[in-house]
């Protein structure tokens, strides 16, 4: 059957009111309140002119002054039946819908809406067709089910629906009189074909019936649960009376008596004992199955598990502690010395409070593992708290016990887990603490790590003071720049630098290799790894500050050896440097290939990285030009400033160096650092840059086997730098025989490995002229420079800064 043709009448203009949350249908009455000024004026105009008014729904009720885009496309032309004035200048109006109409445009928006609309004529009735009859019957069925589920329909509403056989009217009437979404009502209003309109209404009714059925099921289950809880309560009360009559258990609440006994036995501080007794009295008054009783039980259980007065006896024997630390870790002399000093002072002053130490260094150097050794050496129980990624202050101080799922903070949880009030607590990755709208965990740590305040630390869950002054706190960090200054001020910072190759060899021989052999079931007689192989593994297969990757490579080697022993008749495997590729694959890292011939404009600098020291070449080209200075190699701002400082110094010394005084006008200088993909920054490449530029300008060759590090000033002074231990190790590893360092860094030579010191000639310089005289070969030049031999020492050293690479 074809759909009937929809008849559209000619357009007309009339006042309009935008409805918020309401929809009116033809042949229906609707009363509503009007408060907006524009709507009141539109109503007055319609009444004064005796006109009809166009009512159309807004898409969003939040819009105060709707435009045409804020309105739906179909509304209803209505006649005004009644107007009633209300207080506060509001008006209540009753209207009757006449016919649907399409909104063509808003002719006027101020002072009230005037709309150009196109009425839609009523369609010829389709009620006599079989399809219409089927749709109407389905509507009766769905509406009847809706009445059973909602239980709120008036008899008048039911009679009007079942008394009509017109599909369009039934759809409009139901949509007007039941609570459905505004979008659904507008869908019905938008449909001009009566049978199709009722089909859409049937779909909406079917969905509403499903929702109402689910709501009824939920209500039934809720009532059943409430009845079951009441039944359980009455049964428990009856059980208590029966037990009392039989004389079973004496106290009708054995649980309360048990808590009281535990409190007396625990020897708690007075304030704690009084608080817990008060909590027990509250529990006694609560019904057994109530939520409040569960909160009380949880609180009492957690408080009684806390080690309020339990302590472990510290080991104060310095020599015994030294043996344990030496057996577990190679190197780390500063940390070991600090712990032994603490034990020595503890012997003389037993009331000394726990220490707060921050171990700062790159990943993999043993910050976490040394904490375990310290706990064993001092005979303290240890608990580890990982702080990385924490953003919520409640993670540190706990949640209020009234919250569902509340628990103590991580500090109290760690002490409870340790079972002692004087444990060693490792606060791992303290530099990774975050902060957001939930609070700042770093601020919560201020009280925990303050030796003057933490004797009365209050967790939000416990609400009781706990003495943290006997706790030894050890924190670890990779970057102190992210640690708030007030928090850093409360900790004693001990820096753990990256391991040198010599230290890695000793750690591998003493700890890593035996541990991996044991894990893989290898005996000492089955595998022999030469020291040359270890050195080759460290330099060719790992590039790190610590030893984590080295241990993984040793584990890989042990697996290969175990496979070889099982699959062949071999009884013993001996591995030297030449055989490593057979077990570990192709060598990944190679030593820097340094030039063996003197060159002009190429100088070996020294760089500190997070995985150790590196040789960093500086290349300078001088070409005819107009005085431009070009830098390349992914340099940071500080390194670029070092280039300009070097050129300024050279300009001030052109007469002494034999350089054309106008070089900065007629020559371009290009300073380049290879490996441009790696960011570089820091001031300590200053003397290398200066030397390379002087070499390029004068033509003097740079002697082979030299490397240098130091910051340069405009007056040619050489200032102190950092990372000397790693830089000298890199120079020794790459075959450098002479290293130039700032004179102010002579005090740091004690920290350098003895093998490196004996293998290098180290020259301390105070000013650039000394560097040039030592490194450059001026013998082939026609004009010999006039260089000074001495310079007054500078003041306080300036430490280098770091980015991805610190020069």
Task: Please sum up the structure shown.
This protein has 807 residues and is an alpha/beta fold. Helix content is 42%, strand content 18%.
Q: Any overview of this molecule?
A:
With 807 residues, the chain is an alpha/beta fold. Helix content is 42%, strand content 18%.
Question: Taking strands numbered 1, 2, ... along the chain, how are they ordered across the largest sheet?
Answer: 1-3-4-5-6
Mean pLDDT: 84
**Which consecutive residue ranges, at least 5 long each, have pLDDT under 50?**
248-252, 790-807
Number of helices: 27
If you compute it from the alpha carbons, what radius of gyration comes out, rounded to the nearest whole angstrom?
A: 43 Å
Principal-axes shape call:
extended
Distance between the termini: 87 Å
Beta strand count: 27
Class derived from helix and strand content: alpha/beta
What share of the residues lie within helices? Answer: 40-55%
Task: Summarize this structure as a short list of keywords or feature phrases.
five-stranded mixed beta barrel, disordered C terminus, 27 strands, extended, alpha/beta
SSE layout:
Layout (H helix, E strand, L loop, with lengths): L11 E8 L9 E6 L2 H13 L3 E5 L16 E12 L5 E18 L4 E7 L10 H21 L4 H8 L4 H11 L4 H9 L3 H53 L7 H12 L4 H16 L5 H15 L12 H11 L4 H16 L7 E5 L6 H12 L3 E5 L7 H4 L12 H9 L5 E5 L12 H8 L8 E2 L6 E2 L5 E6 L7 H5 L2 E4 L5 H19 L7 E3 L1 H11 L6 H20 L5 E3 L4 H5 L17 E8 L2 E13 L4 E4 L4 H16 L1 H4 L5 H4 E6 L13 H13 L2 E2 L3 E3 L2 E2 L5 E2 L4 H10 L4 E5 L11 H6 L1 E5 L2 H8 E2 L27 E2 L1
Parallel strand pairs: 1-3, 7-12, 7-13, 8-9, 9-12, 14-15, 18-19, 21-24, 24-25
Antiparallel strand pairs: 1-6, 2-5, 3-4, 4-5, 5-6, 10-11, 16-17, 16-27, 17-19, 20-26, 22-23
Helix pairs in contact: 2-6, 4-5, 4-6, 5-6, 7-8, 8-9, 10-11, 10-12, 17-18, 17-19, 21-24, 24-27
């Amino acid at each position: 059957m074809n759909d009937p043709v929809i008849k559209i009448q000619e357009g007309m203009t009339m006042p309009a009111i935008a409805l918020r949350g309401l929809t009116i249908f033809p042949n229906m009455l609707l009363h509503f309140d009007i408060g907006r000024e524009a709507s009141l004026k539109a109503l007055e105009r319609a009444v004064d002119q005796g006109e009809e008014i166009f009512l159309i729904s807004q898409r969003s009720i939040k819009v105060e002054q709707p435009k045409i885009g804020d309105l739906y496309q179909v509304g209803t032309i209505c006649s005004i039946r009644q107007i009633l004035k209300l207080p506060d200048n509001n008006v209540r109006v009753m209207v009757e819908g006449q016919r649907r109409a399409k909104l063509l445009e808003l002719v006027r928006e101020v002072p009230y809406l005037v709309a150009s609309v196109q009425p839609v004529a009523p369609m010829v009735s389709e009620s006599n067709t079989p399809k219409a009859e089927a749709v109407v019957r389905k509507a009766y069925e769905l509406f009847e089910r809706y009445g059973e589920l909602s239980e709120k329909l008036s008899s008048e509403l039911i009679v009007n629906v079942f008394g009509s056989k017109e599909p369009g009217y039934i759809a409009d009437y139901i949509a007007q009189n039941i609570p459905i979404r505004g979008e659904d009502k507008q869908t019905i209003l938008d449909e001009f074909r009566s049978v199709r309109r009722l089909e859409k209404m049937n779909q909406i009714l079917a969905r509403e019936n499903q929702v109402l059925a689910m709501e009824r099921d939920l209500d039934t289950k809720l009532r059943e649960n409430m009845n079951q809880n009441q039944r359980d309560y009455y049964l428990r009360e009856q059980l208590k009376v029966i037990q009392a009559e039989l004389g079973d258990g004496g106290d009708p609440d054995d649980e309360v008596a048990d808590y009281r006994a535990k409190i007396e036995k625990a020897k708690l501080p007075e304030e704690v004992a009084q608080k817990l007794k008060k909590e027990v009295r509250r529990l006694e008054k609560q019904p057994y199955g109530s939520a409040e009783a569960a909160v009380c039980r949880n609180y009492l259980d957690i408080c009684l598990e806390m080690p309020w007065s339990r302590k472990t006896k510290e080991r104060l024997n310095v020599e015994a502690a030294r043996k344990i630390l030496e057996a577990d870790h190679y190197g780390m002399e500063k940390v070991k010395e600090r712990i032994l000093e603490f034990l020595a002072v503890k012997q003389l002053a037993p009331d000394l409070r726990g220490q707060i130490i921050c171990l700062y260094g790159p990943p993999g150097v043993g910050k976490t593992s040394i904490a375990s050794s310290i706990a064993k050496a001092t005979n303290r129980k240890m608990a580890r708290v990982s702080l990385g990624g924490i953003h919520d202050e409640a993670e540190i101080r706990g949640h209020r016990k009234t919250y569902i799922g509340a628990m103590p903070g991580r500090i109290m949880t760690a002490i409870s887990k340790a079972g002692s009030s004087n444990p060693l607590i490792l606060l791992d990755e303290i530099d990774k603490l975050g902060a957001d709208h939930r609070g700042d965990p770093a601020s919560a740590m201020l009280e925990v790590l303050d030796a003057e305040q933490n004797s009365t630390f209050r967790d939000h869950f416990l609400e009781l003071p706990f003495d943290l002054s006997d706790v030894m706190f050890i924190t670890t960090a990779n970057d102190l720049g992210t640690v708030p200054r007030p928090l850093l001020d409360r900790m004693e910072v001990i820096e753990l630098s990256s391991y040198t190759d010599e230290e890695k060899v000793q750690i591998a021989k003493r700890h890593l290799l035996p541990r991996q052999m044991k894990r893989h079931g290898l005996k000492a007689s089955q595998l022999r790894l030469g020291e040359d192989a270890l050195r080759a593994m460290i330099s060719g297969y790992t590039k790190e500050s610590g030893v984590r990757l080295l241990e993984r490579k040793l584990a890989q080697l042990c697996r290969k050896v175990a496979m070889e022993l099982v699959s062949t008749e071999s009884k013993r495997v001996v591995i030297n440097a030449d055989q490593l590729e057979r077990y570990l694959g192709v060598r990944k890292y190679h030593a820097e290939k340094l030039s063996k011939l003197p060159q002009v404009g190429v100088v070996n600098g020294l760089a500190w990285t997070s995985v150790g020291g590196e040789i960093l070449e500086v290349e300078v080209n001088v070409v005819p030009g107009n005085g431009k200075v070009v830098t390349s190699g992914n340099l940071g701002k500080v390194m670029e400033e070092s280039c300009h400082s070097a050129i300024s110094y050279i300009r001030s010394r052109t007469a002494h160096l034999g350089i054309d005084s106008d070089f900065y006008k007629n020559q371009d200088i290009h300073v380049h650092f290879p490996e441009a993909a790696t960011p570089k920054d820091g001031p300590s490449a200053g003397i290398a840059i200066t030397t390379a530029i002087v070499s390029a300008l004068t033509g003097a060759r740079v002697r082979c086997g030299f490397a240098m590090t130091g910051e340069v000033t405009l007056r040619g002074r050489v200032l102190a730098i950092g990372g000397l231990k790693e830089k000298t190790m890199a120079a020794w590893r790459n075959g450098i025989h002479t290293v130039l360092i700032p004179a102010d860094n002579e005090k740091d030579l004690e920290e350098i490995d003895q093998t490196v010191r004996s293998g290098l000639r180290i020259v301390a310089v105070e000013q650039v002229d000394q560097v040039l005289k030592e490194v450059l070969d001026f013998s082939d030049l026609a004009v010999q420079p006039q260089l000074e031999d001495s310079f007054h020492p500078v003041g306080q050293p300036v430490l280098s800064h770091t980015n991805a690479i610190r020069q």
